[in-house]
C-alpha cells in the first residue's frame, strides 16, 4: 500500500510547481507562459479564415476581389495561414442577380454592335494572341474557335501522358495555360455558376463543396474549425457568417483563449456579440476593417500582458488552481504557531513533541 503514496505526492508537487501543465491542454495562450513552450509548434500570430459561403456569398462583388480584400483585412490580425470556404453545390452553381444583369447587358450590347447601331471606342483585344476585334461577339467566337480548342488539346495531351512525360508536358504548357485561363475569365462565361469556386481558389482559398443537405456546410466548417483549434494551428479565427449556429464554436474558441473576428452584415448579430471584433462586408471591401484592426490588436496585446501579470501575481488564482497549496500553507502556519508557543513557554514542560528529547537527556545524565 505504501508504494502508492510517493506517486500521489509527486503529482501534486508538479501541480504546485507548474499550474500550466494542467492548464496548457485547455488554454492555448497559457502555454506561452509555461516551461514547455519550446517544444510546441507556435500558433502565435497565426490567423485562420473560415468562410460560410452559403450564408455570405460575395453576391454584389466579384468573388476574387472580395476574397483578396478579406485576406487583406484578416492579415492585419496576424499572419494568414489558412483560408477555407465551404458551400453546397447549389451555391456554387447559382448565378447572382447582379451577374445575371451584367450578362443581359452584355448580350444587348453585342446585338447593338452586330447591327452597327453602336461601336466600341476601344477595339476588343484578344489577350492570348493580341488580335483586335470591333465587336465583342467576334472576339468571343475567335477565342472559342482558336484558343479554347488549343487549350483542350493541351489538356488532352497531359491527361493521356504518364510519369515523367506528363511532368514535362505540364511544365512546358504551364505558362500558356495560365495565359489562357486569365484571358478566358474575361471572355468566356463560366460553365458552372459564375466561376465562384475557381475565383476563390485563385485568391488562395481552399474550397470545399458539400452536399445540398441543409446545414451540411455549417457542419463541415465547424469540424474544420475544431480541427484547427485542436492542432493549435491558429491564434485568431476569422469567421465570415451571420449564422447564429456558430455561436457555440466561437464560445469554444474563446474558452481556448483564441481571438475571434466575425465578418457579417447583421449589426447586432449573435455572432458579433460573442466575438472580440466584428465587421461588415462593406467595411472589409472599403478597407475600413484594416484600420480598425490596429486598435483591436492593440487591445489584445494589452489583454495578453494583463493576463500574464494576473497569472504571475494573483495568489487567489493560484490557490484555486490547486487545493494542495492551501494545505501546505495551513501546515506552515500551524508550525509557526507551535514554534511561537515554545518561545513563550520555554520553561514549561507541557506534553509536546520535544518530550522525547528531555527523556533522552535524562537517559544521558543517568549514564554520566
Ligand atoms: Zn487570340
Please tell me about this protein's structure.
The protein is an alpha/beta fold and 368 residues long. Among the domains are: 45-93 and 200-298, 3-Layer(aba) Sandwich (Rossmann fold); 101-192, no CATH class. Helix 7 runs antiparallel to helix 8 (163-187). A hairpin with a 6-residue loop joins strand 3 and strand 4. Helices cover 59% and strands 11% of the residues. It has a six-stranded parallel sheet, with helices on both faces. A two-stranded antiparallel sheet has the order 3-4. It is elongated, with a radius of gyration of 34 Å. Mean pLDDT is 79; it is low at 1-26, 28-40, 324-349 and 357-368. Residues 126, 128-129, 131, 142, 146-147 line the site of zinc ion. Residues 126, 128-129, 131, 142, 146-147 line the site of zinc ion (ZN).
Please render the helix and strand layout as text.
Elements: H1 4-17, H2 20-24, H3 30-33, E1 46-52, H4 63-74, E2 79-88, H5 89-93, H6 97-115, E3 124-125, E4 132-133, H7 136-160, H8 163-187, H9 196-202, E5 206-210, H10 216-230, E6 236-240, H11 247-255, E7 259-263, H12 270-274, E8 277-279, H13 281-285, H14 288-313, H15 315-321, H16 323-344, H17 355-367
Parallel strand pairs: 1-2, 1-6, 2-5, 6-7, 7-8
Antiparallel strand pairs: 3-4
Helix pairs in contact: 7-8, 15-16
The structure holds zinc ion.
Amino acid at each position: 500500500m505504501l508504494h502508492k503514496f510517493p506517486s500521489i505526492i509527486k503529482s501534486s508537487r508538479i501541480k504546485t510547481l507548474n499550474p500550466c501543465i494542467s492548464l496548457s491542454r485547455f488554454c492555448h495562450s497559457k502555454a506561452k507562459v509555461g516551461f514547455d513552450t519550446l517544444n510546441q509548434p507556435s500558433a502565435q500570430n497565426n490567423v485562420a479564415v473560415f468562410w460560410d459561403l452559403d450564408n455570405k456569398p460575395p453576391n454584389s462583388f466579384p468573388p476574387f476581389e472580395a476574397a483578396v480584400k478579406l485576406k487583406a483585412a484578416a492579415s492585419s490580425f496576424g499572419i494568414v495561414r489558412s483560408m477555407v470556404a465551404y458551400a453546397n453545390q447549389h451555391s456554387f452553381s447559382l448565378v447572382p442577380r447582379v451577374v445575371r444583369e451584367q450578362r443581359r447587358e452584355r448580350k444587348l450590347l453585342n446585338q447593338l454592335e452586330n447591327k452597327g447601331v453602336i461601336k466600341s471606342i476601344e477595339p476588343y483585344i484578344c489577350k492570348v494572341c493580341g488580335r483586335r476585334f470591333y465587336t465583342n461577339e467576334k472576339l468571343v467566337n475567335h477565342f472559342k474557335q482558336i484558343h479554347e480548342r488549343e487549350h483542350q488539346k493541351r489538356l488532352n495531351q497531359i491527361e493521356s501522358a504518364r510519369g515523367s512525360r506528363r511532368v514535362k508536358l505540364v511544365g512546358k504548357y504551364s505558362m500558356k495555360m495560365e495565359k489562357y485561363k486569365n484571358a478566358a475569365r474575361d471572355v468566356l462565361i463560366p460553365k458552372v455558376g459564375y466561376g465562384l469556386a475557381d475565383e476563390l481558389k485563385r485568391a488562395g482559398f481552399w474550397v470545399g463543396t458539400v452536399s445540398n443537405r441543409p446545414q451540411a456546410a455549417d457542419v463541415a466548417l465547424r469540424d474544420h474549425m475544431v480541427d484547427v483549434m485542436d492542432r493549435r494551428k491558429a491564434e485568431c479565427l476569422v469567421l465570415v457568417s451571420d449564422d447564429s449556429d456558430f455561436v457555440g464554436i466561437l464560445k469554444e474558441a474563446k474558452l481556448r483563449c483564441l481571438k475571434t473576428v466575425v465578418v457579417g452584415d447583421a449589426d447586432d448579430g449573435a455572432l458579433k456579440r460573442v466575438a472580440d471584433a466584428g465587421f461588415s462586408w462593406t467595411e472589409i471591401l472599403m478597407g475600413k476593417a484594416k484600420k480598425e484592426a490596429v486598435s483591436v490588436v492593440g487591445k489584445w496585446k494589452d489583454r495578453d500582458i494583463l493576463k500574464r501579470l494576473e497569472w504571475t501575481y494573483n495568489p487567489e488564482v493560484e490557490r484555486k488552481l490547486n487545493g494542495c497549496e492551501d494545505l501546505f500553507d495551513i501546515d506552515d502556519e500551524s508550525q509557526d504557531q507551535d514554534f511561537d508557543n515554545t518561545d513563550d513557554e520555554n520553561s514549561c514542560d507541557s506534553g509536546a513533541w520535544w518530550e522525547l528529547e528531555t527523556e533522552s537527556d535524562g537517559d544521558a545524565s543517568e549514564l554520566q
